[in-house]
Specification:
The structure is a single chain. By secondary structure, the protein is mainly alpha-helical. The protein contains 10 helices and 2 strands. The chain folds into 2 domains: 122 residues, 3-Layer(aba) Sandwich (Rossmann fold), CATH 3.40.50; 82 residues, Tyrosyl-Transfer RNA Synthetase. 58% of the residues lie in helices and 2% in strands. Strands 1-2 form a two-stranded parallel sheet. Helix 1 crosses helix 4, helix 4 packs across helix 5 and helix 7 packs across helix 9. Keywords: Aminoacyl-tRNA synthetase, ATP-binding, Coiled coil, Ligase, Nucleotide-binding, Protein biosynthesis. It holds the Pfam family tRNA-synt_1b.
Length: 251
C-alpha cells in the first residue's frame, strides 16, 4: 500500500506509453464515451488518457494478473495490447497481465437505476460504500429500485432491479442465486430486502470497525505507507531502467 503520486515513475511511464498508443484506441473506450456524454463541458485530456495511466500502474510492477469488475475489462485489454505493442517495438519488457473476473458480482448495478452500473460518482443513494453506517445500508437497500410484482426471481431483462439485488446477495453470501430464489419463494421483496440489508451490515462491519481503529493511529499509517512506497520504488526503478534502455534513452 502506497501513495501513487509518491512514485514518480508512474507518470513517466504513462507518458512514454502514450507515444505508442493510437488516439483511436482511447476514443473507443466505453467509459470515456459515457463520461463525455454525461459531462460534455468537461471533456479533457486527463479523461481521455486515463486508460494509459492505468496501464502504467499495472505494467510498472510487472503484474501477472489483475482482479477487476466487468466494467474495467476493456481498460485491462487495452493495457495488454499496449504491453504487446511495446514488446514488439522495443523488445521484451513487460509481462502481459491476465484478467481475473470474479465468478459472482463481476458487474453490480446501481441501486436506483438498475440498468446502469453502480458507481461512487453517481448519487450516494445508488451505491453501498465500504465503510457505510449500518442504518444507511439498511435504508439504501430497503429503498432500492425493484420491479412490478413480488416474486424474488432472477430475470435480468424483465426484473433488472431484483436481479441486481440477487446478484449482490449471492456475491456476499456465496450462495447460488437459484438457492436464494428458493429460500425467498412467495416471501416478497420486503422480507428479501431486510435479509439482504442485514447480510451486508454483517459482512461490512469488520471493515468499518477496522477503519475506526486505524483512524487514530496516524504514525502507524504513515509507517505502512512509507514501507509500501519503498517496496514499490525498488520495482518501479528496475522496470523504468529496462524501459529507458530498450527505448534507447539510456546506455
Amino acid at each position: 500500500i502506497f501513495v501513487q503520486s509518491q512514485v514518480p515513475e508512474h507518470t513517466e511511464l504513462s507518458w512514454l506509453l502514450s507515444t505508442i498508443t493510437p488516439i483511436g484506441d482511447l476514443l473507443r473506450m466505453t467509459q470515456y464515451k459515457e463520461k463525455s456524454k454525461k459531462h460534455p463541458k468537461n471533456i479533457n485530456a486527463g479523461l481521455l488518457n486515463y486508460p494509459i495511466l492505468m496501464a502504467a500502474d499495472i505494467l510498472l510492477y510487472q503484474t501477472e494478473a489483475v482482479p477487476i469488475g466487468k466494467d474495467q475489462s476493456q481498460h485491462v485489454e487495452l493495457t495488454r495490447e499496449i504491453a504487446r505493442r511495446f514488446n514488439q517495438k522495443f523488445g521484451q519488457t513487460f509481462k502481459i497481465p491476465k484478467v481475473l473476473l470474479p465468478k459472482k458480482g463481476a458487474k453490480i448495478m446501481s441501486l436506483t437505476e438498475p440498468k446502469k452500473k453502480m458507481s461512487k460518482t453517481d448519487s450516494p443513494q445508488s451505491c453501498i460504500f465500504l465503510f457505510e453506517e449500518p442504518e444507511m445500508i439498511r435504508k439504501k437497500i430497503m429503498t432500492a429500485q425493484t420491479d412490478s410484482g413480488k416474486q424474488v426471481k432472477y430475470k435480468l431483462s424483465l426484473k433488472p432491479g431484483i436481479s441486481n439485488l440477487l446478484t449482490i446477495y449471492s456475491a456476499f453470501s456465496d450462495v447460488p442465486i437459484a438457492k436464494i430464489e428458493k429460500e425467498f419463494k412467495n416471501k416478497g421483496y420486503q422480507v428479501f430486502k431486510e435479509k439482504l440489508a442485514q447480510l451486508l451490515i454483517e459482512k461490512l462491519e469488520p471493515f468499518r470497525r477496522k477503519k475506526k481503529e486505524l483512524e487514530n493511529q496516524q504514525a502507524l499509517l504513515e509507517k505502512i505507507l512509507e514501507a509500501g512506497r519503498k517496496r514499490a520504488q525498488i520495482i518501479a526503478f528496475q522496470t523504468m531502467e529496462k524501459v529507458r534502455k530498450n527505448m534507447g534513452f539510456r546506455n
